[in-house]
Structure formats: structure tokens, C-alpha cells
Specification:
The chain is mainly alpha-helical. The chain has one domain: Ribonucleotide Reductase, subunit A (Orthogonal Bundle), CATH 1.10.620.20. Helices cover 70% and strands 0% of the residues. Helix 1 packs across helix 6, helix 6 runs antiparallel to helix 9 and helix 8 runs antiparallel to helix 9. 35% of the residues are buried. The structure holds fe (ii) ion (2 copies). One fe (ii) ion (FE2) binds next to helix 6 and helix 9.
Length: 229
């Protein structure tokens, strides 16, 4: 199979100066003024959640609505942290030194390590955004149902398909989160939240290209998906 390495390598060529962790200021801390923002949609746009857009939400007071929107934000942040550390970076470990290493050449493995670094940084700022918001609004943290489903999918897959299953989960999740981040930044948001989402999307554009090219190069996307799903 002819490789399309040029595009895959090109997207990480200037990683050392353009990735969020190397080029963006750490502007994710909330000021006192940020917490005075009382417009619910500034914390999480209602258009992105069926629950927030539901008729029953319209009956809530503005104060309760504000808490509900903030809750959606921390839920999305906690989901992101667990996805990056528990699924995406576990897959990268398989690519570097696990079941999937023979599908990828050395350049792809080095680029995967750059992606690993990005994802660890995304997990860090997602966690740092969630903690003060949860604290300010006195919100309980619960596990993401989507992450629980992914964990279950992995547990139910045969041991011999573990690496491939991880790859498919990571590939699909990377595609979904890029779209979700893009939709989130289209609305006005509290400044640290907006900074964080923009910086995350900045890296995910590169990751989406990398995921597509390595899945094409390895030839494991179609065949493996058909065996698993
Ligand atoms: Fe990410
Ligand atoms: Fe990513």
C-alpha cells in the first residue's frame, strides 16, 4: 500500500513551535470577574445539549439554569480528561510499544508521541478548568456515560483484538471531539473556557489529519472496524 507519509509528517513538522503546549499562553485561570458572568450560555451553549434545549429547562430560574450550564461544562471537561488519558493516550502506548507497533513506522511513532504530549496537556487544562467551576457552583462530579460505554466496549472485546479496538475508539473519538470543540467555540463563552477550547481545537485539527493518514497507511481502519462492529 502506498504511504501518504508526506501529509502525516508535515502536520507535525513545526510541532515544537506551534503546538498549544509550546506556543499558547497558559490563560485558563478564572478571575473574580469571570465568576460574575451570570448568562448561562456563556458557560455552555444550550444549542449543544438536548437537555439544555429541552422545554423543561425553560421552566427553571435563571440561577438554576446557570448551575445546569456550568454542570454541562464540567461534565464535558471531565469527559475530555478521561478520554485523553484513558483512551487516546493508551492507544498511543499501543502504537509505540504494544500490539499495534508493527503497523507504524518510526516517524509515525514519533509523531504519535507528540500527539501524546498534546493530549496530556489537554487533560491538564481540562482538569484545571473543571475544578474551580465545580467548586464555585458546588457541583458533584460524576463519571461520563460515554466514557463508561467505551470502557465497556473495550472490556467486551476479545483479548486478541484489544489493540485494534483501542485504535478504533481513539480514531472515532478524535473525530468526534474535533467537531464538538468546533461547535463550542462558535458561541461567546467565559474567557478562560474560550481560551481553553480554542487552544484544544488548535491541536485537534492536526490530530485529525494524523489519525486519517495513519489509519490509511496502516490499513487497519476498514478491515478492523468490520471485525469489531
Ligand atoms: Fe485533545
Ligand atoms: Fe487529539
Amino acid at each position: 500500500m502506498e504511504k501518504i507519509t508526506t501529509r502525516s509528517s508535515t502536520v507535525f513538522k513545526s510541532w515544537h513551535i506551534t503546538s498549544a503546549v509550546r506556543s499558547r499562553p497558559y490563560a485558563y485561570h478564572f478571575s473574580v470577574e469571570d465568576f460574575t458572568q451570570s448568562e448561562p450560555d456563556l458557560w455552555f451553549p444550550r444549542a449543544l445539549s438536548p437537555a439544555l434545549a429541552h422545554d423543561s429547562a425553560k421552566q427553571l430560574s435563571k440561577k438554576d439554569l446557570l448551575v445546569l450550564h456550568a454542570y454541562h461544562l464540567i461534565h464535558f471537561m471531565d469527559y475530555t480528561t478521561r478520554l485523553e488519558m484513558g483512551h487516546i493516550n493508551e492507544t498511543v502506548q499501543c502504537i509505540i510499544s504494544g500490539d499495534l507497533k508493527h503497523f507504524f513506522d518510526k516517524d509515525e511513532q514519533l509523531n504519535a508521541l507528540k500527539l501524546y504530549t498534546d493530549e496530556a496537556y489537554h487533560a491538564l487544562f481540562s482538569k484545571e478548568i473543571a475544578a474551580p467551576v465545580a467548586n464555585h457552583f458546588c457541583l458533584e462530579r460524576i463519571n461520563s456515560a460515554r466514557i463508561n460505554s467505551l470502557d465497556q466496549l473495550l472490556q467486551n472485546s476479545p483479548q486478541s483484538l484489544n489493540g485494534i479496538t483501542r485504535f478504533c475508539i481513539a480514531f472515532v473519538s478524535e473525530t468526534i471531539i474535533t467537531n464538538e470543540l468546533y461547535n463550542l467555540i462558535r458561541d461567546s463563552l467565559v474567557t478562560p473556557v474560550a481560551n481553553m477550547l480554542i487552544d484544544h481545537l488548535h491541536d485537534e485539527g492536526r490530530h485529525a489529519i494524523f489519525s486519517q493518514t495513519v489509519s490509511h497507511n496502516s490499513g487497519i481502519s476498514y478491515q478492523s472496524l468490520r471485525r469489531i462492529i
